[in-house]
Predict the 3D structure of the following.
Amino acid sequence: MLRKNDTPGKLIIVEGIDGSGKSTQIDLLYKWLRAQGHSVYFSEWNSSALVKSTTKRAKKRKSFTPTTFSLLQCTDFADRWENRILPLLKAGVIVLADRYAYTAFGRDVARGVDRVWVRNLYSFAMQPDVALFFRVPLDIAIQRITSARASLKYYEAGMDLKLSESRIESFELFQARILDEYDRMVDEFGLTVIDGTLTVQAQQRLMREIVKQELKGWKGLPIPEGTPEILRQPEHE
Amino acid sequence: MSELQFYGAGFPYLNIQDCPGKLIVLEGSDGVGRSTQTQLLRRWLEDEGYAVSDTGLRRSDLTQEGLEEAKKGHTLGRITMSLFYATDFADRLENQIIPALQAGFVVLSDRYFYSIMARDVARGADPEWARKLYGFALKPDLVLYLKADVSDLLSRLIHGRGLNYWEAGMDMHSSDNLYDSFLDYQSKLTGLFDQMAQTYGFVTVDAGRPIMDVFGDLQEHIRTLLEDQQTDLEDEMT
């Protein structure tokens, strides 16, 4: 378990394997919350500029090991946590995250690092107020990914695990392991499961309902009067 | 070390059968003479016929550029910095140190994760978190802790390469000048090293003496370690 969110802000995150539809859903939620007049900040997994050059180099050279992969992604998360997520939560902003520590608990363990070790790594982070796990059966996720993309990348397909020579097959085996880890985490971290096979609209309705409940009676950081729509995202770039 | 031992879970996905090399670590503050001693030891061990790797000296290729950039910008948070250094260390350990040990080298490591941990804890990191973080680290065969008074370190550095921003912990803003900051920071680090010497079983060597005297002590400890191995090998053969 992670420590409780003791800030005035709200932390809402989505999780799921590739092709679960979670990014579509959080994007819709982001737009909806902004339209409601909230201060919302969106943070994406593996997006800190700081470690970008390092990640790029290691991917190109294929020099990542499961441990350095795990540590570098946590460095990325820590940078976003210390410089953006935590300060904005303290200010009373709604922070949305596409993937959170649970992604590391799933992927890194699927790669072979120790379960307890990786949980300690992320112990500086807080338990989200809303954590949604978009669950889809493996074959549907794989179908969505392979039809949307020309080819799978080396690490994305889990080729470093040497499970199979074929990228598709490797991807399937890798995602199956991750899905197992997610299923374990539902109870461990109290993730709310959303059926990712429902229509986009049906899922969004469920999501908004859950978020509405969470925000009932809550007042966040007000947006200064007269701020143009385009500037309403805190720390927009 | 024929069988590798780790402080925690290690690298569960690695299956290392035979590891005939030896990992010897030199630890201690800045200006204590670690790199001079490493050079002397290397030459001596090679004369004795050992294959020596001082691979631990270099930064890993993986994170070098990112770390340099980060240091320039000073924008890194405390936890981010700890994790970036841990990534660098893990890369060196897995991609350089362990392969060298597997190939039967004596690996001389100028510093190990103990230094990084001390640096983090001095800046407020949770010691328990840091200890578990380095659960992937390999237990060295021997850790030689070169210990000197902070006043000795100061006089050596002032008559040598001078005081620098990071060695003085100026980023912690405990003082407005390098001298006081250095005293403050290095005293803190020495305290942490002394604690770790207990926890991790360092061999403490008084580094406040002439270079060759310190070298003599280090040689003796290393000779004992390598002779034990020799005896083991001979036992196996008879």
